[in-house]
Each structure stands twice: as C-alpha cells, then as structure tokens.
C-alpha cells in the first residue's frame, strides 16, 4: 500500500468537495488530496437539476446564495469554462394563505439583502408561463437573479483549477478508514493508499454519515431519493421559462434543451402525473424520454450541516443540504477552505454546525422543494 502525506484530504468529489479543493488552493493551501470513490460528480451532484436561487426563508441561506451567485455569474470568465449559467429566474406558485404569508415574510427578508424578488398575481405568473393552470392560485413570487447552471461543468472546472494549483485528485478511491490519534485526525485509508494528514474535510454527501461514524461522530443526514423526468418536446412552452415550482406539491419543471425536465417528491412518473398535469396540463401529451434519480441529503431541519468537529480535531464536514447543495457549493467550499486555512470566514456559518442539534438551536428552512 502506497504511503503518502497531504496537508488536507478532501473526501468526495461532488460540487462541495471540488469547490473546497479549489478554494483551498486559491488560499495557498496547495498540498491537497481529493479522494472520490467513484467518478467526479458521480453522486448527487451529477443528478441535480442545477437550480440556483436566492429565494430562501432563512437569512443565512440568502447570504450563502448571494455569495455563491457572485461566483456562478463570473465563473466562465474566471475558470474559462462554460457552465451554462442562465438567470432564468425561479417562479414559486402559491395556492394557500399560509404559504402566501410565509413567502411575503421571506420577500421582506430577501429585500433587506437587496434581492430583487417580488410577488406576482396569478395572471402575471401566467404571462411568464402561459401553459400553467392558475385557477386555484392565490399568488406567485419571482426572482430574476435565480437560475440554473450545469453541475458537472462546475465540478470539472473546480477540479481542473485545483489541479492546476497543485491539488492531487484521485477517482476510484473509496475511503474505508480514518485514523485518529490523541483526539486528532492522523490518516485516511483507501484499499490502495494510506495518506497521513492532519486535516480531513468530509464532503461525501449523503454518505457523510457513514464516514463520520468512522470517527465516532453522529451526523444526522439521511438520503431521500428524487427522480427527474425528461421530455423530448416542450409542449409549446416559451424557449426560456423560469424554474417553476408548485410549492404545495413540490412539482417543478424547467426547460432542458428542446424539451422539459420535471420532478417532485413522488417516486414514479405515474404518482407524479396527478400533481404535474393539474398544474401543467400539456405534460399529459408529452412522452417521457428518459429519467434518473439521486439522493437529496436531508438534515432534520432542512438546513446544511457545516463545520469542524471538536472531537476529533481537524475533521470538517459539509452535508445535509436538503436539495440545495449544488447551488451552495461556491460559498460553502470557500467557507470550509477558510476554516482549514485559519482565515476569518467570509460568512459566519457557525449556526449551521452540528452542535445545533444538541444545543437546541435547530433552525428550519421552510422553502424546501
Ligand atoms: C433529482 C435531484 C435534483 C436536485 N436539484 C438541485 C437543484 O436544483 N439545486 C441544488 O442546489 N441542488 C439540487 N439537488 C441537490 C444536490 O444535488 C446536492 O445537494 C449536492 O449535489 C450535494 O453535493 P455534495 O458534493 O455534497 O454531494 P455529492 O455530489 O453526493 O458528492 C459526494 C461524493 O462523495 C463520494 N463518496 C461517497 N463515499 C465515499 C468514500 N467512502 N470515499 C470517497 N468518496 C466517497 C460519492 O461518490 C460522491 O461523488 C438535487 C438533487 C437531486 C437528487
């Protein structure tokens, strides 16, 4: 077995791990090894819809969104890679008073952060997407900053930029053991390598729970499978529509090439057909060309779990994104890199640390799709 050393070992090569590796090297920490069990973006990231939004109800998620959007918006120039960032907007459709009240409160919070989101009437929503059924809607909200990008392209760009600055990235390397000595991380082992290190950053998505258990840390994240379905045609929808979400049912759709992509909480197209065709009747006439599923890594309060463990020391983690991990990867990767490098964090994400589940400071993000 090869014996190696790295200043930092990042476990998991999804959006979060790739962003962390890049941001570490950008801060001058070049001796980084990233270990990916499968292939880069082979986990949830490669299954994601690529949605990016500032329309959240938790202030910290709004801050993370704005920081991340600033990176997505300039990604092409900075990394020389087309990530197909499209600020097509997010359109939330609301059919009950309780949700309207919650979204109005969130709009105020978003406005306090200069997010240009606004409330629309159902007929204004129908001007944007004429094919939606609006008879039962009370209101909608829209934000033109929101949009989409291609997750695999983001991962590839971060990984390439990290490599160019000295990071070593190994695919097909599953971490099986994490050694701890005197309360601190000492080494990471795969079947073919033992890498001595003083710092481990675990960004293994839904699999973080198992890896954290190797160092006796309980990270309360669980996988929830989500499907996306693709149609070959768009049923007359405009070429550019927002990522549109029927908030009560979680049914959502967006344009994807010549067709549409859509999904929700249901596990089969048959189960999703009811809520989907009620809101977007043209879907009933469109064939499904392909589909896939992946895991949402759910936390108990639907907010990220991000931080550094006290015991063992120098074990950092980021998971539990509950459906918004791709879009949070720029700011959270930057944050993890800052923690590792001992820099003052750009964002104070300490309320998202694991300790909140024992201290009673749990904070619920209400806008989960
Ligand atoms: C259908 C669907 C739609 C989604 N839509 C959106 C969206 O619109 N916007 C959004 O922001 N998010 C969305 N998400 C959520 C998003 O995909 C995730 O939150 C995000 O990709 C998490 O990134 P990650 O890097 O933390 O985890 P992952 O991408 O899962 O990466 C973790 C990596 O760790 C690797 N790994 C696991 N165990 C080991 C080990 N022992 N050793 C080494 N490597 C290991 C895995 O192979 C994997 O590649 C969606 C998810 C799904 C399933």
Summarize the structure.
The protein is of the alpha/beta class. The protein contains ten helices and 20 strands. α2 (59-73) packs across α9 (325-341).
CATH architecture of the largest domain: 3-Layer(bba) Sandwich
Reading the helices and strands in chain order gives EEHEEHHEHEHEEHEEEEEHEEEEHEEEHH
Task: Provide the helix percentage.
Answer: 25-40%
Count of extended strands: 20
Proportion of strand residues: 25-35%
Strand order of the largest sheet: 6-7-5-15-16-17-14-18
Residue runs with pLDDT of under 50 for 5 or more positions: none
Largest sheet entry: 8 strands, mixed
- Derived structural class: alpha/beta
Output the CATH homologous superfamily of the largest domain: FAD/NAD(P)-binding domain
Distance between the termini: 44 Å
How many domains make up the coordinates?
Answer: 2
Overall geometric form: globular
What is the CA-atom radius of gyration, in angstroms?
21 Å
Hetero ligands: flavin-adenine dinucleotide
CATH topology of the largest domain: FAD/NAD(P)-binding domain
Averaged pLDDT, please? Answer: 96
Quickly count the helices: 10
CATH hierarchy, class of the largest domain: Alpha Beta
């Amino acid at each position: 077995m090869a014996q190696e050393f790295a200043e930092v070992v990042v476990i998991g090569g999804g959006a979060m791990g790739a962003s962390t590796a890049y941001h570490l090297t950008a801060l001058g920490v070049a001796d980084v090894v990233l270990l990916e069990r499968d292939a880069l973006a082979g986990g949830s990231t490669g299954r994601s819809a690529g949605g990016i939004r500032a329309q959240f109800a938790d202030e910290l998620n709004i801050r993370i969104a704005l920081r991340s959007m600033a990176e997505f918006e300039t990604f092409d120039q900075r990394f020389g890679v087309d990530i197909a960032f499209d600020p097509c907007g997010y359109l939330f459709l609301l059919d009950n008073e309780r949700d309207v009240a919650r979204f109005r409160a969130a709009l105020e919070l978003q406005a306090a952060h200069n997010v240009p989101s606004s409330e629309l009437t159902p007929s204004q929503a129908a001007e944007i997407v004429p094919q939606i059924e609006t008879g039962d809607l009370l209101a909608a909200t829209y934000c033109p900053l929101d949009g989409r990008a291609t997750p695999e392209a983001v991962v590839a760009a971060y990984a390439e930029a990290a490599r160019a600055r000295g990071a070593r990235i190994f695919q097909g390397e599953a971490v099986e053991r994490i050694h701890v000595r005197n309360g601190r991380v000492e080494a990471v082992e795969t079947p073919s390598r033992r890498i001595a290190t003083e710092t481990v950053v675990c960004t293994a998505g839904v699999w973080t729970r198992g890896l954290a258990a190797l160092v006796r840390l309980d990270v309360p994240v669980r996988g929830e499978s989500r499907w996306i379905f693709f149609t070959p045609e768009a049923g007359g929808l405009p070429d550019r529509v927002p990522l549109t979400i029927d908030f009560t049912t979680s049914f959502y759709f967006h344009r994807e090439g010549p067709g549409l992509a859509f999904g929700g909480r249901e596990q089969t197209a048959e189960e999703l057909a009811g809520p989907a065709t009620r809101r977007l009747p043209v879907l009933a006439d469109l064939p499904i060309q392909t589909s896939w599923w992946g895991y949402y890594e759910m936390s108990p309060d639907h907010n990220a779990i991000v931080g550094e463990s006290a015991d063992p020391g120098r074990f950092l983690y980021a998971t539990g994104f509950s459906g918004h991990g791709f879009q949070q990867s720029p700011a959270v990767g930057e944050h993890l890199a800052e923690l590792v490098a001992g820099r003052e964090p750009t964002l104070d994400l300490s309320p998202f640390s694991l300790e909140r589940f024992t201290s009673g400071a749990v904070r619920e993000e209400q806008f989960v799709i």
